[in-house]
Write a structure and sequence with these properties.
490 residues; 12% strand; five-stranded parallel β-sheet; alpha/beta; Rossmann fold; 2 domains; elongated
Length: 490
């Protein structure tokens, strides 16, 4: 794109001042409309070192109510970022509905710099690029406005600006070794920028190249583009997002009705195996920490199926400093106003740690689907989005273990009745549990479809036959141990 780019004609100073005043006023008015329509806007500002992104950002935000925006400098991943998946630091910072988020630098700079400097191989570059294309598509499919800018200056102009910054003791700190290296290898960087923008210039998230030689002119170009994009989004007739084809390799899974639930284990065998397996898991947890391998254990299942007791037996074997259990309930307001996967991205473990989810991101294709909390297009699209999410976790190096805890309808009724009649257990049963039970057949159809479409080779589903809770606990421990041992090369 840089190769074909033609610099736009800069208006006269009087024309520029008039256009800028109009654009600023329009952007100020659009804030109220964004809030009214619950539109989140993410603005990515990429470009050459010393191209003036920070200065232009400082000018733009003067026209925005400070309650309606956040900004983040995305120069270098922090130590915590480096212990999370590649997309974590971007996904975790996406804006709430009705607000702006400005990224000063971002994923293009991270990928291009690592590639040009030889830190990424060709396959790593393609994997990162694939992640970004999926990330951008997911955002726009879920109602985000994404506007991507590249601040363009030529090699001579960059060198002049770097020299000016270095000549003043109060500004020389703003120049780092990477900026100087970039200028010396300007042509190489230009080729890499051009390639990345060309390959990620999607209709739903196009690149906009800014002539950044003049700061005021750069501000005008950016504000006019942002305002026009938001206006177009508000005015456009809402259309269902495209349903991407599921290209993930899937494993064959039985339907729930085909699973035998007569598996049991004698009490004495249960005690012996429980102690032995918990001791083994404890040993493995130490090795996971040493080798910095993250583990994600996800539980879904019928109400009263025994998820809590199952989780308790796994957690009992772990060092409490190295794991966290996340009970997932209805999303809070600040979670509901973001992409539905945001609250799971922000709960991922660091490398060497274990995260256990009691209910998961699969709520999108079960309760949200059946209770009408999202559109049909939303939950149909979610199968692919969830597979992409788990692919990111797998590529990061995580061990992913997904359990569906299965019981029959009669067993659930017996457990519901026991809870209802036992004072110490009554807190476990709610009117919602009884209402969900009336939709058993609908939920079973949804679960069957979920398992069939999301049991990938890198994150397959495991069914725990839990009419006998003790049998299910032992089976879960064995599976977790087996999957961890695979990751450790056993």
């Amino acid at each position: 794109m840089l190769k074909e780019w033609k610099k736009p004609e800069k208006p006269t100073n009087d024309q520029l001042s008039a256009r800028l005043e109009t654009a600023r006023a329009k952007l100020f008015r659009l804030q109220t409309q964004m809030k009214h329509h619950n539109i989140p806007v993410l603005i990515l500002m990429e470009g050459w070192g010393a191209a003036g992104k920070g200065s232009v950002l400082g000018r733009i935000i003067r026209n925005i109510d400070p309650r309606f925006f956040n900004a983040a400098t995305m120069d270098h991943p922090t130590a915590d970022d480096l212990r999370k998946p590649f997309l974590y630091r971007y996904f975790s910072r996406i804006p709430e509905a009705g607000k702006f988020m400005f990224f000063d630098g971002g994923w293009m700079e991270e990928i291009v710099s690592n590639t040009v400097q030889g830190h990424y191989s060709g396959s790593e570059y393609r994997a990162r690029q694939r992640s970004i294309i999926g990330f951008e598509r997911q955002l726009t499919d879920n109602g985000y406005v994404l506007v991507k800018f590249f601040f363009q200056i030529d090699k001579k102009e960059q060198k002049h600006r770097l020299d000016e910054l270095l000549s003043d003791k109060n500004t020389k700190w703003r120049v780092n070794d990477k900026d100087l290296w970039q200028n010396r290898h300007y042509e190489k960087y230009a080729e890499a920028y051009d390639r990345f923008m060309t390959e990620t210039n999607q209709i739903y998230a196009p690149w906009h190249i800014i002539d950044a030689k003049n700061q005021k002119w750069a501000e005008c170009q950016l504000i006019e583009t942002v305002a026009a994009t938001i206006e177009t989004f508000i005015a456009s007739t809402s259309k269902p997002a495209f349903l991407p084809q599921n290209t993930f390799s899937l494993t064959s899974m039985p339907k729930l009705c085909e699973i035998s639930l007569n598996r049991t284990i004698p009490e004495e065998d249960y005690r012996k195996q429980l102690d032995k397996l918990q001791d083994r898991l404890k040993e493995l947890h130490n090795e996971l920490y040493r080798r910095k391998i993250p583990v994600i254990i996800a539980y879904e299942g019928w109400d009263a199926a025994g998820k809590g007791g199952n989780i308790k037996r796994i957690a009992a074997a772990l060092d409490p400093r190295g794991y966290e259990v996340h009970p997932i309930a209805s999303p809070l307001p600040h979670e509901k106003s973001r992409h539905y996967l945001w609250r799971f991205w922000t709960r991922l473990p660091r490398t060497g740690h274990i995260a256990i989810f009691d209910r998961t991101w699969y709520g999108r294709v079960m309760v949200e689907r059946l209770e009408g909390f999202c559109s049909e297009n939303d939950w149909q699209r979610a199968y692919n989005e969830i597979n992409e999410f788990e692919q990111e976790l797998h590529d990061w190096g995580a061990v992913i273990v997904k359990f569906w805890v299965q019981i029959d309808k009669d067993t659930q009724l017996a457990r519901f009745t026991e809870r209802q009649n036992t004072p110490d257990k009554q807190w476990k049963i709610t009117d919602e549990d009884w209402r969900n039970r009336e939709k058993w057949d609908l939920y079973e159809d949804a679960v069957n479809e979920m398992i069939q479409k999301t049991s990938t080779t890198f994150a397959p589903w495991h069914i725990l036959e839990s009419n006998d809770k003790k049998y299910a606990r032992i089976k879960a421990l064995k599976i977790v141990i087996e999957e961890i041992e695979k990751a450790l090369g056993r």
